């Protein structure tokens, strides 16, 4: 590689644009478009008796009103079940507009198109829908009780039952020296991106083609869905993901009802139509995640080694299963983390409720799995009186055991085999970073000052870079610009920077010459999408492979121009020259001219290229057999299986003895995503992930009442951490390159969020000495836990064993260890 | 090949659309766009003293007015010289809007943009341009005299002098037993498509991209030109050629001033803008062709074999040379036709005049060259008293002499080597078809009835399928539709049909499943363009190569699905099955699903595909190394050199002894374009070509007065043949496959037009017994020739020799030989 840009903390190239208001988000587009609005169900479960649109018809500026009856053919069919699975015996999806029955609050019933959004909302408000309410199923316990059914034809509200096992877990547990059994509970949360969903469609009647902008994580799949629904060839549907203000998973679902309806109406009306989700809509009509109950049985030996583990996962899937059962599959497989378990059985039961659908949110089932495993490790340590970190270490897969086969089937249907890693070293580093071994002294010093602090740790493994493939296209134009495109989309992760680094490094060009396009089907038509921490691994490697083809072609052509052996050439600063000798060189922009036997007279570079007497002999074709004109290449990366990143987090928290307020004093992350393309971008991802994890650990929940109304469907009521609640995050890296891909990289997008609930739970438990089995842990919840513990000694852990943070008790001043933390009394929230 | 469609007279698939008014021509697009109009020079040569736009400014609806001073950077630079040539020492091009000096009537001076075309024209009329007239150079003799200069810095008005020779022509002529020397004159004509030029541009500010529709023959090159001028990457400029109502060469020039200015203003104003050329504009602001004077010296032996030929070609290039000197190069090289000439020298002198630019028009210099060669053959025959056909036969390259090297450099810069042909057989067939050997009896029978008829013949060779390349892309989608795209454009030739035949034949699919896109840079970005009878040869073969890749991939995947060896499989009616056994088969639409490891749940075919247990082993990547997802392939065809079609035409004409009116009684064509893809389409091309040739032979001229005003710049004054003037054309085919390309085909687009002037001249000369040395031959011209001949016996040919149509004198009734012809007195024109 020529220029040293791979692995450097290059500043994010998109930030200049995004931070100065020059981003082009969906609602920045189509300012003259008609607006769509939706009448949505106010009931969690009801039969639609009548829809009376007459009141809307005299709204000036109204263009159209559609109900399910108006949707022709495939437009009106139920939405697809994206990822079928044999275990999902009772998969169900909704209609683009509700037909007969609504099954959650927010389900779209009527679509209104009007001159602008105000008028569309006014018209929507005048539409009278008569409902016959039906009993709502809310909460996992209610769903399991199955007094009422979400779908008449789904007995017991059970969509899927899936068992995975290695060995005989029940027997192993029964035979183990020690056994524990407990239930864990994880609340619902949601991706909650700054920008909600949005679709803007324009039909080109001249061309018979459709352009759709969607704030999506999967533009090629949205294209395929729209094409299928509208009966258009893929080639007549262009889907572009413009700047997207965060996705975190919710925008990988496709097609959303609105992604079908808005393009359909745009074609029908031959008018541009736009719909942008408002915040309340996002809360009730997009998707949630996380909600699970886990029943754990574990057997272990005196050293804390797990001999058998049995987990029954009750998963709340909401009203429909458009995305299949990928989340509980991930929970049940990734739960094992860095550990080798004697025998394992996981049973997933996926349950319907009359609540918003549940689809992947950053971490996608992993935070629940890690919460389960790490709570279990802590329980074992407390039970045996061992150091919590030591118990983890006792269970680790060792560095010499890779590739390590967990004996399960992963989310991609392939064997769950870890490719590389060094978990002991991760733990060693995070212990050092957080000061694990000196923590007892800190705790005691704090206690002397009336403060209650605790320390927690969590280790996890994350399958990243899931297949089946991603492609990259690289073209060097006659101005020397390098155009890199890949089909997957960007939601602010820094792809423009990272992909440009990869291309610049592979090609030997200045990074400023590299222009990256993502998520535009006009530029790259085959893609899977941005999710599962796969963008850098998949598209990064595909782009690298494409660059290598372009580089090879460039060296061949330049070799002819310079009359040199291509093997002796290298590329520096965008010019090809003999290795180590820059006296004679040919710029890549000139190579681009030379690559095309059709020379354009209006191209400045063509004149420049004439100095090189390059032309194929008159006895041969101008384009050689097997060659193509142009200095471009395409590459696909398709891995045998996922690559496994890992990390260890540790935190020190303080709990207020009076108010039960919880503050994170320190947060340390040691992260291993293989070779780092850009440590600054990875750290940014970690920071963002931890921040979302803090939300999940302490604040975020979806408060449904028993009738299925979401009581906190606004940012006034739904608590997210502000910068004041998120600690400074201390990071360190480990690099165990992946042997599976040319760049040796692993995904990093979700990492930060995964173990946070587990780590905070571990630390609060340590601070309070009370068993933490449910997240999020609000002051209310902690207060209630204290109250309950006062009557139930079984909820106390410290008495049983005073382990955790034990060891050398010579720690320094508490104040020094809690840099930047405010005393609880001074914290705003 | 599965289905038998290659070589069949499949009806044109585009006709149902085009003939029922469903074509989408440029002016059908952008109905809400702003309109552009141009103030054009009324002077052939003048200095611009002042432009006063103030009068236009109060036109309601005016949006913008631009003069050259308003054009920034490269937008205002002179237009490119598209095909530079070392001999073109003084190439000159105009500015998009005139700067200081105008050099022909019609040159654009001011651009006006307004709400609609009416307003734009109104505003344009109010703009006052003050000119200082300069002396105009009109006509080749005036240009050569160089009393005045078109360009101050081009001495003698000579843009280029190019000599090509084989052997010592002067010496060979001087030593020959017989010598002749004469001057020939060919008038100007023009492509005159039914639809003029037009550009419609829209800027997408959201996307930073430009969509340009242009009625062009070269959308990729227009894209490159606009991108270069506007400083945009190619990828941000989409150029689409919609339905185009004829091109015939004039639309291959690029960029036209309007193709730069309209997109530039559309971006600047961020408004859609359209300009469509009106008929007068087309006459004075597009391009002409043909105009040449040829000074011929020829030496030959007693058998009429040409021992030496020297031709000096004075070529009228008009005011600028944007397309280089390709026309006279073609004239001077293709002039040799099917003959082997002892020694040959051609000198091309390209001259500037203050008239519209001269760029290729169907035939592109060949009609002039064939006129020269065939007039020469007739002169030799008359001189020696030999049969005109026999003299041609005596000079033919023989079928066993291929590949035959003419020893010259062709228009593509490669050696002029004919690949295949059978000229004696062509001549034999056309003699039989027209009844050459029985013509004297017909003539005498006619003479007895007071009618004067004559017979003529002409043979030509046409280099077709010029490189450097063309590409094709073929994709089979999951509905089984076959999407074929190629970069070159269509102007009504029947590409949709012919390319679909090729794809259907190669793939074994029903032709109704094939959808062809041409000239859309969004679909295929590399192309050269549609000209030089190259579309079928170049894109046809590229598409065939692409199909073969797709077919190979389809058989491989189907082989896995059917558990059969791909070599045992074939495709019939869009389904793959074991050869000769259709009991088990897999439809291509299912193969398309299987080709992409990402299966879409919303695709009906995906469900159908599940019956085939195809999936790559879990130990291998989902996309195999070197493979790509999708059932598609791309192919490029890049020939070593051009392939040479040929033909022989013969005609019987009748001239009115009183009015000098000329009627074509019969017209016979024997044509060899190698393997026929679709004889009906080829015959349609021949018919259209002959019709245009009849125009050039008898009617069309550009009547410039001495000040450079085009006096007949309308269809009221410019004569074109109607259906009443074009005879029924009798055709026969010969197929000498080209060994240069996989399909064995040769181009056919220009063929019909090439020898018509020569054949009509030959026949009129034969009827009148008067030497015909200038075309077109109007009744006026023939009458004048008769007058001159009455005082100059040297203009008479019949006295010298009564050859031509001699031989067996036993022909039948004249009336039988002139099927469908009216007596001159009853003809309308």
TrEMBL record, chains A, B:
It holds the Pfam family MoCoBD_1. SMART domains: Ald_Xan_dh_C. Residues 20-135 form the Aldehyde oxidase/xanthine dehydrogenase a/b hammerhead domain. Transmembrane segments: none annotated. Residues 793-829 are annotated as: Disordered. One of its GO terms (molecular function) is iron ion binding. Keywords: Molybdenum, Oxidoreductase. This is Xanthine dehydrogenase family protein molybdopterin-binding subunit. The lineage of its organism: Bacteria, Bacillati, Actinomycetota, Actinomycetes, Streptosporangiales.
